[in-house]
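so the lab meeting is tmrw and i was supposed to have these ready like two days ago... anyway. pasting both below. for each one the top line is the aa sequence and the line under it is the structure tokens. i havent really looked at them closely yet so no promises
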Amino acid sequence: MLRALFRAVRLAERPAFRAVFLPFRAVFRTALLDARPPFRAAFLDARLLFRAALLDARLLFRAALLEARLLFRAALLDARLLFRAALFDARLLFRAAFLDARLLFRAVRRPFLAVLRAERLAVLADFRADLRANLLPLLLPEDSLSDESPKSNEREDPGLDELLSEGSGSIQPEPDQPISI
């Protein structure tokens, strides 16, 4: 309710309030128009000063940046040279250590390989002797001195048929037979 009353009073008093400020509005506008040229001149002067200061700051920044780049390049070059020297030293040390380890490994491996070879030769000799002793009677039938052809199919030993199988023909043709492909 109080709000509605205040609004009604304000609406009723608005034309009188405007009438009081109307002459001041014209004075303010003329003062604003009079202050505009000096403000613009001051702004142009300040803009020129700001541009000069900005240009100086840019030049100083560029010089500092160039100096920093040169220092960084020099430091990077020094670091690269130091890294290369350290890498070269490390490569030489690694090669020497690798050669030492290789020689040591070979020295340790030689007796082991010698024992391994001796064992292999002993086992191989025993294997060959056992093979000759056990397989030779199977390969040579007891009636090998008989008149029968070695290609006959009339063998009496069934174990020999499993070990040796005869083919349907010979690998080499007979000298008087033509070669057929």
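ok protien two:
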Amino acid sequence: MKLWLPEGTNYAAYRVDRAVKEYDERLMFARNEDTGDWCVFVRMPAPQDPFPLMGFGNNIPDPVDVVARVQEGHLVKHKERIWKDMIASQEKYRADLKYGGDQARDESVEVVEHMMRKEGKSPIIKSLPKGVSNDS
């Protein structure tokens, strides 16, 4: 991967690079010459190339916006919030699934009761003493 570093030649890119480095010294802002996109990269141990974290297209964004996006995507820092959001989403899914199942059960019971009544039978089972019929 071929990177173009903004080392003083482009002041806007240099400001973004400096802002992301202040947030985390392992980060850098550079242009990926292969794609033409401006990206935030994380430095990897040698001899590996820097790893792109997020791209910003052809335009150099505002440093404040870049740091805000990096902070929002910082998994280590936000792991508790992400975990709670995931658990809440799963609980909502389970509740919706249970509600749907309960609705389907209730509808099927109503259909069976309606069909039994149409045939002149009672859907209610009566427990009677021996010798007494349900039909009377």
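from a quick look at the 2nd one: Helices lie at 11-23, 63-72, 79-118. The CA atoms of residues 9 and 130 lie 100 Å apart. will dig more after coffe
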